[in-house]
Amino acid sequence: MSDSKYSSENKPTEDVEKHEQVEVAPDAHYDPEFIKKTLYVSTFCFRMIDWRLLPIMGMLYAVALIDRTNLGIARTAGMEVDLRLDIGERYSIASMIYFIPYTLLQIPGNIVLRILGARLHLTICVVGWGAAQLGMGFVTSWGALCVCRVILGIFEAGFFPALVYIITTWYKRHEVQKRLALFYIVSIVTGGFSPILAYAMTLLKGKHGYNGWQWIFIIEGAVTIGLGVLAWMFAADFPETSRFVNEEQRKMVLDRVEADRKDSVPDQVTAAKIIKIILDPISWSFGIMFLASTMPAYAVGFFITPILFSMGYTMSEALLLSSPPAGAAMISTFFFAWIADKTKLRAPWLACQNLICITGLMITGYTNLNGTRYFGLFLVNMGASGCVPGVLAYQANNITSHSKRAVTTAITIAMGGVGGIFATTVWRQKDFPKYIPGIWATMACQFTMLLLLAVNTYVFRRRNNLRRQGKVSALENTEGFEYTI
After folding, report:
1. Closest to 109 measured CA to CA, from 61, 57, 166
2. Which of 62, 206, 307, 328 has its CA at a distance of 20 to 30 angstroms from the CA of residue 389?
3. What sections of the protein cross the membrane (predicted)?
């Protein structure tokens, strides 16, 4: 494909049909059947690379999400009494302390990823946090629980940014969100059934002298370690090193990425590049938006069971009712991912989900009927869940080069850890049962994200127009690149 098709001489008035030709031209060098078999054929059809990447990645992320948020379930199942988590802010501290190493180790984790390779890196992370999860089943004090939570945060820190980084290296920019949404949906479904499975585990109470909440950690920790072994056997590496594709398939994948964003070849990560990326306010805007997205997701994960318990439901009813909102979130997440990739727009659809989340928070916080409060939890799940892959795709679409992708992804997900700290400190035990301060803090995050989406849209649109008019040099130092609005 000639470079002229990507030049700034393409005016904004260029018709849609011509724009579509520019997008699909990189694929024209290959047999459509070959691309169809290797990658995809339509919006809802997933192919070889999808099947190799997404199911195992989705399962790993699902157990990561379960392992970091199952504290609320264990609390309801007897841990609060056994470890005296009802004293002061012990529960909030035990929830929050995980996020300190999780936040601080994101950037080092993505740098180590390139040194170790994806499979070894993922295996170490998964087995490490699985061991910490298993250990939580044997703690006898609140302090020991906190130590295990810190170890959990250390090993999970390198996992999620690596996961997102790996997936984005395989696809063109406007193919990313459906894939991120798919593996996130796997985690939503698994996480949605987690309370039901946890309830089944609590029935083991008394077996071998362990309480029900201990069995939750023991069984889930053992499963996580087992999945770590599967990660070593089946997880995909980067396109240039993975063994499950042949050389022709590898070249096709890399050619498509090169034509789309000119970064199929990894560049070296240097201190100067890291500093430059860290000083870029756009990098932090993505991070703050991810904070705003994860904050309600963590709040629901940690507090949905206590909220339902406060409505007068029994422990078993609260655990079982925690699952249905995840089903609505699954549908909503994929719908917004599909429409975002189809329209090649990110910000407008993220804003829609922010408004859904705000509505749900208001309903849960300020209505008195259990049915309407429960409906509000559905809306909060639907609004928050879809924003997680949405922000990651928005960020991935608007950067180039492997070094910037590694560092910016780490910053973004590190700020998600800050969202977890924020959620566990503003949703306080003393505000039970309505958690009004936590609800307002969560809504403030949504309004902040709406503001940042507006600012970024203005900045990106202005830069695109200036480039089309030839008034500035190539955006992101990449000829033909334009920001995704």
Report:
1. 166
2. 307
3. 53-71, 91-113, 120-144, 150-168, 180-201, 213-235, 286-309, 321-340, 347-368, 374-394, 406-427, 439-460
In sequence order, the 6+-apart residues with CB closer than 8 A to the CB of 323 are: 192, 193, 194, 195, 196
Sole residue written with tokens 């756009």: 282
For tokens 């560049």, name the residue: 267
Query: DSSP strand E in 168-249: where?
Result: none
Tokens (6 digits) for 366 = 């300020």
CA distance linking residue 361 with residue 372, whole number of Å: 11
Structure tokens at 59: 């399962």
User: Each residue of 145-165: pLDDT tens digit?
Assistant: 999 999 999 999 988 888 888
| Domain extents in the chain | 31-38+46-477
Burial (CB < 10 A; 0-12, 13-18, 19+), residue 466, is middle
Give 388's Cβ-side CA count (13 Å radius): 33
**String of DSSP letters for 137-183:** TT--SHHHHHHHHHHHHHHHHTTHHHHHHHHHTTS-GGGHHHHHHHH
**Amino acid, res. 7:** S
- Give Dmax (Cα) for the chain: 74
Distance (Å, whole) CA 109 – CA 414 = 11
What would the pLDDT profile of 342-379 be if each residue is shown by its tens digit? 899 999 999 999 999 999 999 998 998 889 999 999 99
235 burial (CB, 10 Å; 0-12 / 13-18 / 19+) is: buried
Measured between alpha carbons, how far is residue 387 from residues 181, 333, 380, 441, 480 in Å? Answer: 9, 8, 11, 17, 28
Architecture in CATH of 31-38+46-477: Up-down Bundle (1.20)
Torsion of CA 347, 352, 358, 363, to 10 degrees: -170
Q: Which tokens belong to 321?
A: 């009712």
Could you check whether the bond before residue 433 is cis, i.e. omega within 30 degrees of 0?
A: yes
pLDDT score for 221: 93
Give the chain's length: 485
Q: Which two tokens stand for residue 95?
A: 């929830």
Is a pLDDT exceeding 70 seen at residue 7?
no
| Cβ atoms of 256 and 262 closer than 8 Å | no
